[in-house]
Amino acid sequence: MAVFHGKLLDAFFIRPFYKMMLGKPIELEDMESVDSEYHKSLLWIRENDPTELDLTFCVDEDTFGCTNQRELKPNGAQIPVTNENKIEYMKLVIEWRFVSRIQDQMNSFLEGFNEVIPLSLLKIFDENELELLMCGIQNIDVKDWKANSIYKGDYHPNHIVIQWFWRMVLSLNNEMRARLLQFVTGTSRVPMNGFKELYGSNGPQLFTIEKWGMPMNYPRAHTCFNRLDLPPYESYQQLKEKMIKAIEGSQGFAGVD
């Protein structure tokens, strides 16, 4: 009803929720901002041979304090995870974490939502745009943002690339600032008490800019750490063009982890 009447929700949901509303598949990258440790485990499996881990196609499921085994596929407890079938295992684990466990609740939510606004009308949006539609755009205080940011690598507040970055942020309208914040942190929402209370997946985590890559690279983001990996660009114009293309997703690049 809030969306129907043009009212904004003073809350936000995790990115997979918006993707599920749009009927999009949940991917490994979506897990990082929700559970970074689980994401690292699956990332290791993807890049290595998991045979020695003695995994099977089942997971431990905690239900009201009781731990039970849940098979990811028929007879899954008897099927070992190997280098040949690990991609299927990862896909089933992600589906279990984000979809299977809440399928009934999600179906009920979507059924109710569809009665007010046909879900087909949402297809013109991506998950980032859908968040902005439902939760709106706050007036982002760049001064507060800058005051509660930290730097890594060779970067520091007076570094020319950092000065260009904040000049670029000031030049953006409020919507693009929200898209930038969304790109780096996974949400366009600023905490009630400002950027000093920004959280990552493991607790309090200030907005962070770290030196990375070469001038020809596009910036990339680690949403679970609220970290922007920013290459050492050679001019303000180069930085602004690369950042905007990254934010808008109009260019293939390392992207969001």
What's the short story on this structure?
The protein is of the alpha/beta class and 257 residues long.
Q: Can you characterise this structure?
A:
It is a single chain. This protein is of the alpha/beta class and 257 residues long. It is built from ten helices and nine strands. The strands form three sheets. It has a five-stranded mixed β-sheet. A two-stranded antiparallel ribbon has the order 1-2. The model is unreliable at 250-254 (pLDDT under 50).
Furnish the topology, listing elements before pairings.
Blueprint: H1 15-21, H2 28-31, H3 36-47, E1 58-63, E2 66-71, H4 86-98, H5 103-116, H6 127-135, H7 142-147, E3 149-152, H8 160-171, H9 174-185, E4 199-200, E5 203-204, E6 207-211, E7 220-222, E8 227-230, H10 236-248, E9 255-256
Parallel strand pairs: 3-6, 6-8, 7-9
Antiparallel strand pairs: 1-2, 4-5, 7-8
Notable features of this structure?
257 residues; alpha/beta; globular
- Structural class, from helix and strand content? alpha/beta
Distance between the termini: 33 Å
Strand content: 5-15%
Overall helicity: 25-40%
Mean pLDDT: 86
Shape summary = globular
Instruction: List the uncertain runs.
Output: 250-254
Strand tally, please? 9
Q: Note the run of SSEs as H and E.
A: HHHEEHHHHEHHEEEEEHE
Sheet having the most strands:
5 strands, mixed
Radius of gyration: 20 Å
Strand line-up of the largest beta sheet: 3-6-8-7-9
* DSSP summary: helix tally: 10
